[in-house]
Design brief:
The complex is a heterodimer.
Chain A (H helix, E strand, L loop, with lengths): L2 H25 L12 H4 L8 H11 L1 H17 L7 H16 L7 H18 L4 H26 L2 H4 L3 H6 L8 H7 L2 H16 L8 H22 L2 H22 L1
Chain B lengths: L1 H13 L8 H4 L19 E7 L8 E2 H4 L12 H22 L15 H4 L2 H11 L7 E7 L8 E2 L5
Antiparallel strand pairs in B: 1-2, 1-3, 3-4
Helix pairs in contact in B: 4-6
Classes of the chains: A mainly alpha, B alpha+beta.
Chain lengths: 261, 161
């Protein structure tokens, strides 16, 4: 895979991920209205120690109305991303994603916000300086963060006895805020299934560096990863992780081709 | 150069991580992902509300039980599921912040929290708003947080109008 093709596929994935993120927030815009949970007049109190120009800028961009504009810009930029090679839409997705994360005290949807920013930065760099070391560095950054996202998560889980002995999944599927379907929760709570699924996940995540060894291995590992995110999206409702991680995959394919092809 | 970027990222990510106390810097944390998803399989704090008339507030109910069940398409598009996760993050944030404080023991379990160090916090206000979002408009309500493993309720609010 060439860098140009990788960036084109990442731009398509980023478009979907950014559009979904913007549309989801627009659907629940009452939550960030001044009468909602994430009211800006409340959140801005945490910026009391910031310099006045920063507070003024935040009031402009992160107020209820400002947030609607930011989401509109993000949606528009996402929609044009696959169709034009200009770097501006990718930079706009990056800026708006960062603004939304800051609006919600650092993150609205955890790691998916971070990966959206990673992919947007990679595409923005690659389109700003195509066929240069900067473009390749952007793709390397996304590929590295992708591998690290699995590897760090796997190693961290491995340190918890609950993951090693199969108690973890039954705990997680019963956390009420994930609203896992009772039938699925019951199935994943069976000790044999819980232990097998936990070790399969640990092997997959800790084995992330294997993807760097060979292009064919990389594709197989990424196919498994796509299935992993799809299952997480179905079971836990983590849809944004599916879209943002898929958007990063071409960067890894490109780099493994470069290293081993 | 690209391999150098990769090497630096590996080192930075694997270094020990410190919590950022500043809420301003904390707002930039999406730029420094930790990637430690579900690294501890623990039950998490739960927000419960009760509502009704002031003298008859009804039974405590977890907010997740008051939300509509998720639709079949949530694997692809899940605004309400992700909002529920954001609400839960607010509750976890408040519990984490209170864990950092040195508060006086208020005595008996079930005491309404009135310490300004607690009730003046942005996170406390946000939790109150999460609770309000789960009760009928105009109803009086009260919320509490239950932390698994703790025998008594972790935090009890006054009745809000």
């Amino acid at each position: 895979m060439t860098a140009t093709v990788a960036v084109a596929w990442m731009a398509r994935g980023l478009a979907v991920a950014a559009a979904v993120a913007a549309l989801e927030l627009l659907c629940v815009r009452r939550a960030f209205a001044d009468t909602g949970v994430f009211a800006w007049p409340v959140l801005r109190r945490e910026l009391a120690g910031a310099p006045r120009p920063i507070r003024a800028l935040a009031d402009l961009v992160l107020s209820s109305r400002g947030t609607l504009v930011v989401l509109g810009v993000q949606l528009a930029a996402a929609l044009v991303l696959p169709w034009i090679d200009h770097p501006a839409p990718a930079w706009l997705v990056l800026a708006t994603s960062l603004a939304i994360s800051m609006r919600f005290r650092g993150s609205y949807n955890g790691g998916s916000d971070a990966m959206l920013i990673v992919v947007a930065l990679a595409v923005a760099l690659a389109r700003s300086a195509p066929d240069t070391p900067l473009a390749r560095a952007g793709l390397a950054y996304a590929a590295a963060q992708l591998v690290l996202s699995y590897f760090v998560s796997g190693v961290a889980k491995l340190q918890d006895a609950a993951w090693r002995d199969g108690r973890a999944l039954p705990i997680l599927v019963r956390l009420p805020h994930y609203r896992v379907a009772p039938r699925i929760a019951a199935m994943l709570s069976r000790p044999a299934i819980a232990r097998s699924a936990a070790w399969l996940m640990l092997a997959f995540e800790c084995g992330a560096p294997i993807a760097l060894a060979d292009p064919a291995l990389c594709l197989a590992w990424l196919a498994f990863g796509a299935g992993f995110h799809l299952v997480n999206a179905i079971v836990f409702g983590l849809d944004r992780f599916l879209w943002t991680w898929l958007a990063a995959y071409p960067a890894l394919v490109f780099w493994v081709d470069q290293l081993r092809g | 150069m690209s391999l150098a970027v990769l090497a630096v990222l590996v080192v930075v990510t694997l270094l020990g991580r410190r919590a950022v106390a500043s809420p301003i810097l904390g707002r930039l944390r999406a730029l420094f992902p930790s990637w430690r998803f579900f690294d501890r399989a623990l039950a998490s704090p739960e927000l419960l509300v009760r509502f009704g008339a002031a003298d008859a507030l009804g039974a405590w109910t977890a907010i997740d039980q008051l939300a509509a069940p998720p639709g079949l398409g949530r694997w692809a598009f899940a605004p309400s599921s992700n909002l529920a996760l954001a609400y839960h993050a607010v509750v976890e944030q408040l519990v984490a912040e209170l864990g950092e404080l040195e508060l006086e023991d208020t005595g008996a379990a079930g005491t309404v929290e009135r310490d300004p160090q607690v009730v003046d916090r942005v996170s406390y206000e946000l939790v109150t708003r999460v609770a309000r979002a789960h009760v009928p408009a105009g109803a009086q309500f009260q919320w509490k947080i239950r932390v698994p493993g703790e025998p008594a309720d972790y935090l009890l609010s006054p009745v809000f109008g």
